[in-house]
Write a structure and sequence with these properties.
Length: about 375
């Protein structure tokens, strides 16, 4: 039987709670599909800082690189918020993404029929939304140099960062986005700030150039401020969105809310080769950590993306996706997606119900 090495990075806050649920789901699906998973759990983020003094220990990065896929919970928390930059949990996450060279971050936002009422948008606006944000993940202002702290001519402290994109970085993310759009509904919207920023001017020029390789995909361009507005005005106009690192970060959190909750949104981060990194788009949610309140479905769905995009195990991925829908059909909801009349449960119970659905031990609605 096929055997895969999976690195688990539970991280901080609700990270360990949601990873535990996703691990159980992977294990169960493996036994049903005749697959074997060897899990290796490694410290990352604040947990790693406390244990080893750095947010991404070398052993964690090398274990991740040597595995077939990496599943991350979340990192960060108040305790480490005032650490120096190189000792922040978030810096560890950026080092991990850079170390694995996962430049393409796929963040799908789909309004499930079961969760239309959980959206803060009107039913007729939210219903049927199915979009994919392709976020550039290893460049832009997150990594650009020069950066740092200094003083200006008045002796006042300044902090500065640089938005920078090279042609090869734009070209490769554009190709991933065109390929993604081609497999979806053939529409790609490139989001930038080309009316102001040079990095965006080059972005728009290169995306337009690459478009000639994909005559079957309909390309449009939109400024990011307008895109933020259009996402809540009429999200159904979007199929695939491609954008830079920071705009993708912000727009995907916004898109998540259309679907009902950030606790539902999964992601896959892929490079040209090597293991992919799979993680929910949400953070460590320190406000609800340790209270068994977290919605584990974003991480469970990230595990499904791991199976599909990371391992090519489509059938196993479909089992997990179907189980999530079945669990929602059976009325189970964590607090973030709860509406009156349904069954309010915690993270653990939600996980148990997903397992039952995977196992087919319950009649489908
Ligand atoms: P957050 O995503 O952690 O939380 C925002 C809000 O959404 C909170 O009210 C939280 O309770 C809620 N929420 C998030 N995930 C949820 C879930 N699964 N179920 C139910 N509710 C959920 O964002 P934040 O509060 O801005 O950041 C908290 C920490 O997480 C910070 O240290 C930040 O740097 C870090 N962070 C990490 C990642 C990551 O690990 N990939 C992503 C974003 C933020
Ligand atoms: C995310 C997070 C990270 C990001 C932070 C924690 C570094 O917000 O994964 O969306 O900005 O990419
Ligand atoms: Mn984010």
């Amino acid at each position: 039987s096929k055997s895969y090495n999976i690195t688990l990075l539970p991280g901080d806050g609700i990270g360990p709670e949601v990873i535990s649920v996703a691990k159980n789901a992977l294990q169960l699906v493996a036994s049903l599909e005749g697959i074997e998973f060897k899990f290796q759990e490694m410290p990352m983020g604040g947990a790693a800082l406390d244990l080893t003094g750095v947010p991404l220990p070398e052993e964690t990065l090398s274990a991740a690189k040597d595995s077939d896929a990496v599943l991350l919970g979340a990192i960060g928390g108040y305790k480490w918020d005032n650490n120096e930059k190189h000792l922040k949990p978030e810096t560890g996450l950026l080092q991990l993404r850079a170390g694995l060279k996962v430049f393409a971050n796929l963040r799908p936002a789909t309004v499930l029929p079961q969760l239309v009422d959980a959206s803060t948008l009107k039913k007729e606006v939210a219903e049927g939304v199915d979009l994919m944000v392709v976020r550039e993940l290893t460049g832009g202002i997150y990594f650009g140099k020069p950066r740092g702290f200094s003083t200006n001519e008045n002796g006042e402290e300044i902090g500065f960062n640089t938005e920078v994109y090279a042609t090869y970085e734009i070209d490769r993310i554009a190709r991933v986005a065109f390929e993604t759009a081609r497999k979806r509904h053939g529409k790609l919207c490139s989001v930038d700030k080309a009316n102001v920023l040079e990095a965006s001017m080059l972005w728009r020029k290169r995306v337009t150039e690459i478009a000639s390789e994909y005559p079957d995909v309909e390309l449009s361009h939109m400024y990011v401020d307008n895109a933020a507005m259009q996402l809540v005005r009429n999200p159904k106009q979007f199929d695939t969105i491609v954008t830079n690192n920071i705009f993708g970060d912000i727009l995907s959190d916004e898109a998540s809310m259309i679907t009902g909750s950030i606790g539902m949104l999964a992601s896959a981060s892929l490079g040209a080769s090597g293991p992919g990194l799979f993680e929910p788009i949400h953070g460590s949610a320190p406000d609800i950590a340790g209270q068994d309140k977290a919605n584990p479905l974003a991480t469970v769905l990230s595990a499904a993306m791991l199976l599909k995009y990371g391992l090519g195990e489509e059938k196993a991925a479909q089992r997990i996706e179907a189980a999530v829908l079945d669990t929602l059909d059976r009325g189970y909801r964590t607090g973030d997606i709860y509406s009156a009349g349904l069954k309010l449960v915690g993270c653990k119970k939600m996980g148990e119900e997903v397992l039952k659905s995977i196992d087919g031990k319950v009649a489908t609605a």
